[in-house]
């Protein structure tokens, strides 16, 4: 007689229709499973895929343990007999915290060397599976580095807790640094907070900001006859 596993663990933020557990019901035509009693608002047994799936938003449940009850019918054709066994599956809903995630990092951002100091150059975005509105995550700029130089560039950019990145000092493509790397951390609001770290690479783009110049300080023009000679 086939009997499924009874105890199942699932996270509270599992999506509707996601599979909780796949059951290996023998495909011999002798076994039939029917489960239609219990917490059917949240759980459902899909006989076509032989799996237990989420049927509703688990966040709205009032108990941490859900159950689904039904029967397993085992037909013994050789003896013309039917066995019925009552089945009950218990689902423990846990609120395990997941780390927050970035939506638009890592990223390489190209900005003009004419960008003004104090200007907003980028908005970092992230999220948390526990907070759909994304209002409870905060950001921190951990450090700034520049390629091919030992110059201290920590005050070149700033970022607030909402993820807005600002330019603080003028850029110079011709005589300055052309690549910056910002290490950014995102943290959730859980009592035991988790974080994640990613990188924003900034590439300074050249602009026509140099006045035209003569190659020589002086030029002499000598006129011979009707044709000028330089």
From TrEMBL:
Any Gene Ontology biological process: homophilic cell adhesion via plasma membrane adhesion molecules
Location in the cell: Membrane
UniProt topology in membrane: Single-pass membrane protein
SMART domains with a match to the protein in the record: CA (SM00112)
Domain (Cadherin): residue spans on this chain: 103-214
InterPro entries found in the cross-reference section: Cadherin-like_dom (IPR002126), Cadherin-like_sf (IPR015919), Protocadherin/Cadherin-CA (IPR050174)
GO cellular component terms, A-Z: plasma membrane
Protein known as: Cadherin domain-containing protein
Organism: Octopus bimaculoides
Lineage start: Eukaryota, Metazoa, Spiralia, Lophotrochozoa, Mollusca
């Amino acid at each position: 007689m086939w009997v499924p596993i009874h105890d199942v663990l699932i996270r509270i933020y599992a999506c509707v229709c996601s599979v909780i557990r796949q059951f290996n019901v023998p495909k011999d035509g002798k076994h039939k499973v029917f489960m239609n009693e219990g917490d059917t608002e949240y759980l459902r047994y899909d006989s076509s895929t032989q799996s237990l799936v989420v049927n509703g938003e688990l966040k709205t449940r009032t108990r941490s343990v859900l159950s689904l009850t039904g029967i397993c019918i085992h037909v013994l054709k050789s003896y013309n007999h039917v066995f019925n066994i009552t089945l009950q599956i218990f689902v423990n809903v846990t609120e395990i915290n997941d780390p927050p995630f970035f939506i638009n990092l890592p990223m390489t951002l190209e900005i003009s060397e004419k960008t003004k100091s104090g200007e907003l150059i980028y908005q970092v975005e992230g999220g948390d599976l526990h907070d759909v509105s994304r209002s409870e995550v905060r950001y921190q700029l951990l450090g700034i580095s520049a390629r091919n130089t030992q110059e201290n560039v920590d005050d070149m950019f700033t970022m607030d807790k909402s993820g807005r990145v600002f330019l603080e000092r003028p850029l110079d493509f011709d005589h300055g640094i052309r690549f910056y790397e910002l290490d950014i951390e995102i943290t959730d609001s859980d009592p035991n907070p988790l974080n994640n770290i990613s990188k924003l690479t900034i590439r300074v783009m050249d602009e026509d900001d140099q006045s035209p110049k003569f190659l020589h300080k002086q030029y002499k023009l000598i006129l011979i006859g009707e044709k000028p000679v330089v």
